[in-house]
Amino acid sequence: MNTLFMFGLYNNWFWNSFRDWGFFSFAFGLTAYILLSIGLYRLAKNQNIANAWLSWIPIAQLYIIGKLVGSVDIGSHKITRLDIIMPVSPFVVAVFHNVRYFGSILGGLSSIALFIFFLYVLYHLYKKYVPEQAVPYTLLSIAVAPLMIFLIRDKHQLVA
Prior knowledge:
Elements: H1 3-6, H2 13-46, H3 58-69, E1 72-74, E2 77-79, H4 82-97, H5 103-129, H6 134-151
Antiparallel strand pairs: 1-2
């Protein structure tokens, strides 16, 4: 017999709250996925990006964001081909996480750098569609990026 059932721990408040939070997390994640997919799909369709349906595939969503933004300038360097860099970069970070001995340091630093880079790319996305609100949209994207992209889904690119 399961020890959780033997000691009566299965039906206590801890396990019930864990079950409830698990459902909340699933519902929030599914809602975020749907909002992001719809937002990217509509933006890609408005820009006549081929294969806009890729907006419904999680890692391919980064490809669509890269296509929408095109390129960004970091200092004096112009980063082009974001449609390739965006979907590949999480895999590079995963490799850094698995480096022997220094993986936790390299992985942590590369994760932070990737997060900042993604926010920078999103800033450029918002700058193209809602230039006067690019900074607030970027800051809100720290917590609710799918919602922010969903909100601009019907906007047309104002800045090339």
